[in-house]
Specification:
single chain, 454 residues, alpha/beta, Immunoglobulin-like, eight-stranded parallel sheet, six-stranded antiparallel sheet, 21 strands, elongated
Amino acid sequence: MGRWTHALAAALVVVALSAGAATLNGQQNAGTATNGLEPTPLLGWSSWSFLRKEPTADKVEAQALAMRDSGLQKLGYTYVNLDDFWYQCPGPQGPNVDSYGRWVTDPSRFPPRGDTNGIKAVADYMHGMGMKFGIYVTPGISRQAVSKNTSIEGTPYTAAQIANSSVKESNYNCKGMVRIDYSKPGAQEFIDSWVKMLSGWNIDYVKIDGMKNSNAPDIEAWSKAIRKGGRPIVLDVTQGSFTAALAPTLMKYADQWEFAPDIECYRCEKGSSYPLTSWKDVSSRFNFVANWQPYSGSGRFNDFDSIEIGNGSNDGLIPVERQTQLSLWALGAAPLILGIDITNLNQGDLQIYLKNTAVLAVDQDSIAAKRVVNNGDQQVFAKMESNGDAIVGLFNAGETEKKISIAASAVGLSENKSGYSTDNLWTGETKKTSGDINAVVPPHGVVLYRVKAL
């Protein structure tokens, strides 16, 4: 939630990229070093799209169990991420806080198990299944901590000393968050204490939501705290409203970042979280994928929000649109975080889309594709693999069938007199072409090729 924000082995075995592995038209996308925590885009599930404001321990654990039993875990879907509404929210004065100014778990949703905090209990359940567990925060410090002037753990400083109460921070649930002044003693230590608490709960992933360009110091502080804390934790930054001006900070400190409005179709809903999304919300991503392509690489990834495929007609997408969403995310080497109800999987969606290991391998190569054609409704994204294959997505965003064609040289392939083979990753059909890569593409659809020189 940024709110207003075909072999199996090929999919699972990803080798670190060499310095020249990810070039297309001179654009390098991945370096020799993997700087982020995860070398490939994350695969998993998040609570926001389906559970929204009503997450509980039982519901989240049921989704994880379904992810395992469906076979998705074996494909690499291992992260279970809890979004908003896990903490006590008494009202607009901000989240309830502990004696060190950190948010307090809502025991009505995540009850303690014996002496174990409710969030830690869920994290331990995930780890018991070989999964990882993530949690949600927003920047700043609660006004409740400021008004109580809570201590900052391990320091002589207090909440009031580090708060700039004149600047509000985004929190979509409670409100009541204000800015941290990182020039003040104790500010970094406050974030350190947050990471200490989350590490104690065995958290593996932290999503900081509602971020703006002015929140660059928060990103740096959280990164420093995670590095000092010693527990590997993925740092995910999602927007309230940030621009590419924040990219240098994100590339230095975060593991992944979401810069587009939410994928959920809030305007479409009628008393539930269904339909999860719409064609309009998916197709709006084309420009985001293109514009943010230069910033992905070296183990740090652009995040286009949740994959809303798996609940049949409740997805809000027709079959060709589902192919488009997965193809675009895979070409962009984005995290594939499901937003669906996994406990009610549509078996067609599961087998046709989510278990297509040829498409999954495109995502897990960690190379973000470049847009090489942007001609009205015709869009072509392409990337070169380290083995010399080209991955080419021919997209038709229009309302009528179109033939889309591009020269092999335009996607980075060298001239080859013997021609090329095009492997359609959705149908499995392989054809030979002498030079142009082309297909007749249905409206809102895609043809996704792996192209090899013969």
